[in-house]
Amino acid sequence: MIERVIRLEEKIMSIDTRLALTEQDLRALHKKIDTHFYWVLAAFGGLYASMAGLLAKVSNWI
């Protein structure tokens, strides 16, 4: 009976270790996605500003 409990505890510790590694990987991925998101947001902002300028130029607002 004690051997079965020991095996279960080992499996639980293994699951806990793998879960901790998964959490670390997800945090690293989250930081990477945040950085890429800001670059994409800046690119869309620049595109929006240039399209607004082009529309103003074509419509003779400028």
Structural class: mainly alpha
Mean pLDDT: 89
Distance between the termini: 85 Å
Task: Report strand %.
Answer: under 5%
Number of separate helices: 1
The Cα radius of gyration reads 26 Å
The rough form would be described as: rod-shaped
How many beta strands in the DSSP annotation?
0
* Unreliable runs: none
Largest sheet: none
Query: Approximately how much helix is present in the residues?
Result: over 70%
Write the H/E string, N to C: H
What does this structure look like?
The protein is mainly alpha-helical and 62 residues long. Helix content is 92%, strand content 0%. The protein is built from 1 helix and no strands. It has one helix spanning 2-58. It is rod-shaped, with a radius of gyration of 26 Å. It starts with a helix and ends with a helix.
Notable features of this structure?
single chain; 62 residues; mainly alpha; 1 helix; 92% helix; 0% strand; rod-shaped
Summarize the structure.
It is built from 1 helix and no strands. It is mainly alpha-helical and 62 residues long. The model has no long low-confidence stretch (mean pLDDT 89).
